[in-house]
Amino acid sequence: MLLRVRSALGQLAAGLGAGGQPPAEPRGGGDGAAAAGGSFCRPAFLQLSPEELRRADDHAGRAVQSPRDGRRRLPWSTGYAEVINAGKSQHNEDQACCEVVFVERRPSPRGRLPSKEGSGELDGGRKGFCFHYWALFDGHAGSGAAVMASKRLHLHICEQLRDLVDILQDPSPPPICLPQEPSRVPLAEDDREVPNDAVPRFHLEKAVSHESLVIGAIENAFKHMDDQIERERVSQHLSGGCCALAAIYLLGKFYVANAGDSRAIIIRNGEIIPMSREFTPETERQRLQFLAFLRPELLGKEFTHLEFPRRIQPKELGKKMLYRDQSMSGWAYKKIEEDDLKFPLVYGEGKKARAMATIGVTRGLGDHDLKVFSSNIHIKPFLSCFPEVRVYDLTQYEHCPDDVLVLGTDGLWDVTNDKEVARVVMEVLTSYEPNDPCRYTMVAQELVVRSRGVLKERGWRLANDRLGSGDDISVFVIPLGGPGNYT
Question: How far apart are the C-alpha atoms of 387 and 218, rounded to whole Å?
Fold first, then answer.
């Protein structure tokens, strides 16, 4: 086991994907800009020409890509920029999506809630509402999962919201149960549905907010997306997995859903408001340890769920050493036993922390076939596809054109902290007129350029000569001061 772990750690240090396996050749281009043969694709909204696509795939030049002037502008005049990695994988494994999605009310011939005045209705009598959607997908061990998620996650969110079209536009509390679909078999007299106003109200009935319904819809959409990747991974050649960060604007509120180590912040009047947190073996140590404690068979007799400050040596058997388990946030001493010599479930710290010596993120989509190096131990049971969803109510504040929501993959945040991002945002925005629709694209480009750095003899370097990001970098900059130009 020790030799397998050392080999796995050696591969990680060599710059392979976060899954600890050689990056696979992604298949299919689909709706995105793709090279001949479909071996490489970029977001469709970039509208890259074949020559631009070749530059986007150049690890040496690492040219920054953004939507060009004169092409379709993104909703809200959103800014976007990306750059490929410095050679850690064959292609750019990040993917992005930006859409305006119409949610049509699901047909329900019986028990439909009455339509309220002001509910959305398109020509032709279609009832529903729109949501705006921005998402980043950071792939690892191949881009297959990230490509599929970028083309499908918003459709799963739309499907989950269809039952809520009338409910979300009705100020009264949501119904606990939705009306049943009509049955072909006539109901007996005693079995007929009691009118809603005659149903007794129980004192212990929980109050459920409209906001929590949207959060639940987003959470379920992530689960359905992960299930689809699992079902189609063989037929569609879906390699690896991906972190997913999505921002949904619906009925005056932003819902930011994160599963992985990408992050989002709001910059409002100079104030920084975190809208997500990273999910890594360190931040989710207790969840991983608790699962291993309940189901030790998942460890394959090769790992221990306990954490120690360092690896234990056989000569230390019988001594007392610091440890912590699934119930502890602090540390205590325990007598070292034979079972403690196994490799820890969570090992390392910071960006080097790994679960089962293999993967550095604990939430995301895909990774259904990921195993511990040279073993038959599956890692997927420890990985969660459910995002954490944070909500920001735009109607509670009066926003100016310089207030923005920044979404970035870990290629940005690995070398740039929140304050540095906010400083770049303010520097760039103040150099453009408030009504200039290109200003947010310029912010995104500057964030990517400063995180990538400049190529020197010793590699890509930042302005302070620290090592720049060698990872794929993708950034959205979304203005909060108004809807801007919808498309």
Answer: 8
